[in-house]
Design goal:
Length: 227
């Protein structure tokens, strides 16, 4: 079975609108939700996601509110919840103490292992050597996050093809599902990646751009293109 996971920054643009977005995603049958936990310097992300982090932080997101939001998501929806953040976010919001509220945690600037939490998710950039990949796979649950090519989120005009070799190499060491992110925008992009042996795709900047330009109706129309 193939999966499409959509990204949204937690509480963006505010709490009320954020839950309206989640409702739209749920109504269209989305099963995987990647939640960006905002930090002051999301350096691996492009302008749209960086600005969303700034917006949420300016609204004054506190740890207690973040934990309450995660609890509400668990109660209201059936998403598999994947947290994506930086180590500053892990520490600031004490995320390792609340594993019951999510299904996986990706920390992009520090490789967390099973000594840190039960379900770490690792990043697999292009041209990773075999020994490093094998080590990461031993500390990876839920799925392997394969980066399509070098660059920041939202910086690609077309989907790179570096991920094809990365998936092939992952298959040598593990049967864990491989999800590809960075640069995927359309149904055609997703189909191409699936045809190259990916188990899932991750769409972030494109979804957020649809919301910025068209609000909830824009998101609904966009999601329908993936039917």
């Amino acid at each position: 079975m193939k999966h499409i996971m959509f990204y949204m920054t937690l509480n963006y643009p505010n709490n009320e609108r954020f839950f309206e977005i989640l409702e739209a995603l749920s109504n269209e049958g989305v099963t995987y939700l990647e939640l960006g936990i905002p930090v002051e310097n999301p350096f691996m992300d492009g302008e749209i996601i960086q600005q969303s982090h700034d917006t949420v932080l300016k609204n004054g997101l506190k740890q207690a509110e973040l934990i309450e939001v995660l609890k509400q998501i668990k109660e209201k929806f059936n998403f598999k919840i994947i947290l994506m953040t930086y180590y500053a976010g892990v520490e600031k919001y004490d995320l390792l103490s609340h594993e019951n509220l999510y299904d996986g945690l990706l920390c992009v600037d520090k490789s967390l292992t099973k000594k840190d939490l039960n379900k770490p998710i690792q990043l697999y950039p292009p041209k990773m050597d075999g020994l490093k990949m094998k080590e990461k796979l031993q500390n990876n649950e839920t799925f392997a996050y394969v980066i399509s090519g070098e660059g920041k989120t939202g910086s690609f005009d077309d989907v790179p093809t570096d991920y094809v070799d990365t998936i092939k190499n992952i298959r040598k060491f593990s049967d864990i599902p491989a999800f590809v992110g960075f640069g995927i925008k359309t149904k055609e992009d997703a189909e191409t990646v699936f045809n190259n042996d990916a188990d899932g795709v991750i769409i972030g900047t494109a979804l957020m751009k649809e919301y910025i330009e068209g609000g909830i109706p824009g998101i609904k129309d966009y999601l329908k293109t993936f039917k």
